[in-house]
Amino acid sequence: MSEPSDGDGAEDEPPAGRTAPAAGPAAPEPAPDEPAAPRSGGVPVAAEVPPTRPHSAPGVPAPAGALALAVQPTTFPDDSPLSKTVRSIDHLIGRIEQAFVFGLLALVVTVAAAAALHDRIMSSHMDRWWHYIVRGGTFATAMFAAVFATQQQRHLAMDLVSRRLTPRGRLALGVALELLTIGVAFLLFRSGLHQRPFVGGSEHLDVLGIRIVDTDVVTTISIGAALIALHSVLHIVIAVDYLARGKLPPERARSGH
């Protein structure tokens, strides 16, 4: 006779000579049914949207690797003659601005390095070069970099709102943001003009026959604001032209965060 269980919750051991059946692997749960992608001859059908106009649905984030693809499209097949002309003008001005920003940045870095070496070798300090080229050049570089960012349409964005809109809604939102940018640029332009009479003095720096004073550094505020407004106006013309014709320009890939 077998002894009764002692009540401690343990299971009875199997009789001698017999082993407990080994527990096999659990059967995999059936995967939920997923809608099959439409196929044509065994090959998935391509997306209905042309590759040059990858418009995603509202609320759908871009696929992985979107940051690497987030570049401005190089082809605009739906451009009208007006949009093509305006876009070419915008790109030409942007190339000039990009070259100016990189050249100015190289000048600032070169003068800063030369000033550091000069201070170690000589007892004097390159005061005016440091003030007008390094400090003033850094400020001017920041202003014109903002101009170039506006030309590339990377200066102001509302991804939390735009990803929930249709492609036409995103295009209209872009027009509204450009109008807001023009308003801010106008205030910045007036601020630069207002500061001109209150800066400057007798000091100046002559470089290759060019006299640089503090007023010139402050003037970059108004110049940068005017260029920002110019790019915004050109972008509005292109967007309104597309909306009037019922077309959609190519969109940049948007990240999912």
Summary, kept brief:
53% of the residues lie in helices and 4% in strands. With 257 residues, the chain is mainly alpha-helical.
List the helices and strands and how they pair.
Blueprint: E1 39-40, E2 43-44, H1 66-69, H2 81-121, H3 127-151, H4 159-162, H5 167-195, E3 205-207, E4 210-212, H6 214-245
List the keywords.
single chain, 257 residues, mainly alpha, two-stranded antiparallel sheet, two-stranded antiparallel ribbon, disordered N terminus
Protein described:
With 257 residues, this protein is mostly helical. The protein has a domain at 79-245. The protein contains six helices and four strands; from the N terminus they run E-E-H-H-H-H-H-E-E-H. The protein has a two-stranded antiparallel sheet. It has a two-stranded antiparallel ribbon with strand order 3-4. Helix 2 (81-121) runs antiparallel to helix 3 (127-151), helix 3 runs parallel beside helix 6 and helix 5 runs antiparallel to helix 6 (214-245). The longest helix has 41 residues, at 81-121. The termini are far apart.
Strand order of the largest sheet: 1-2
Instruction: Give me the number of helical elements.
Output: 6
Shape: elongated
Structural class: mainly alpha
How far the N terminus sits from the C terminus, by CA atoms, comes to 70 Å
The major beta sheet can be summarized as: 2 strands, antiparallel
Mean pLDDT: 75
